[in-house]
């Protein structure tokens, strides 16, 4: 994948991170973990060299694009709290990460899983489905045009009530005040 390095540098410095912190990282085909500072921004996971637990450089030494990947808990004899990122197109290459406790690695895994475009797309589909269901169930939205449009007799009756100077709400006969109140509460 090709990147515009200048834009990536700008993004890594200027945009606030969705999550950031220190993790030990073992890239694919390497034996040991190296401590790195990670910044998750949208679907980009930047990592930096660290010095005494804080970011020591302003430029990232690496980046992972978090698309078509999954996270999973790993068992590694060298570290207690480990998870990995595995990409669909290259399952042999696992990026291993070690944290200080189980809660930390679970939070990172959740953040990484939510960062992908695929996750956002599925979330949008769920929301669209919920909206469609609510539209189908809302009483005001299920009314036909005849029910909403008053008849000539009802219109004359409405004007007569206004002429008598009685304050009253006008509703077509098929709809009650309760139905309209419920329709106003429908959350679209």
Helices and strands, in order, run as: HEEEEEEEEHHHHH
Please give the alpha-carbon distance between the first and last residues: 40 Å
Give the helix/strand class. Answer: alpha+beta
Gyration radius, rounded: 29 Å
Name the CATH superfamily assignment of the largest domain.
Pleckstrin-homology domain (PH domain)/Phosphotyrosine-binding domain (PTB)
Strand percentage lies at: 25-35%
Secondary-structure map:
Elements: H1 5-14, E1 19-26, E2 34-41, E3 44-51, E4 54-55, E5 62-65, E6 69-76, E7 79-87, E8 90-99, H2 102-115, H3 117-137, H4 145-148, H5 152-163, H6 177-185
Antiparallel strand pairs: 1-2, 1-8, 2-3, 3-4, 3-5, 6-7, 7-8
How does this model look, in words?
There is one protein chain. This protein is of the alpha+beta class. The chain has two domains: 5-116, PH-domain like (Roll), CATH 2.30.29.30; 138-185, no CATH class. The chain is built from six helices and eight strands; from the N terminus they run αββββββββααααα. The protein has helices at 5-14, 102-115, 117-137, 145-148, 152-163, 177-185; strands spanning 19-26, 34-41, 44-51, 54-55, 62-65, 69-76, 79-87, 90-99. Strands 1, 2, 3, 4, 5, 6, 7 and 8 form an eight-stranded antiparallel β-sheet that branches. It is globular and about 55 Å long. Residues 138-146 and 158-188 have low confidence and may be disordered.
């Amino acid at each position: 994948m090709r990147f515009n390095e200048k834009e990536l540098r700008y993004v890594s410095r200027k945009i606030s991170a969705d999550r950031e912190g220190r993790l030990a990282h073992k890239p694919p085909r390497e034996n040991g973990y190296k401590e790195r500072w990670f910044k998750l921004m949208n679907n980009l996971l930047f990592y930096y060299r660290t010095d005494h637990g804080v970011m020591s450089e302003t430029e990232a030494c690496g980046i992972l694009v978090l698309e078509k990947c999954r996270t999973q808990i790993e068992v590694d004899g060298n570290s207690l709290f480990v998870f990995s990122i595995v990409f669909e197109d290259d399952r042999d290459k696992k990026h291993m990460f070690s944290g200080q406790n189980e809660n930390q690695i679970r939070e990172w895994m959740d953040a990484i899983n939510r960062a992908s475009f695929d996750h956002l797309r599925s979330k949008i589909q769920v929301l669209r489905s919920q909206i469609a269901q609510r539209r189908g169930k809302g009483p005001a939205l299920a009314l036909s045009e005849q029910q909403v449009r008053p008849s000539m007799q009802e219109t004359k009756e409405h004007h007569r009530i206004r002429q008598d100077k009685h304050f009253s709400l006008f509703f077509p006969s098929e709809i009650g005040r309760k139905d309209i109140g419920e329709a106003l509460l429908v959350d679209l």
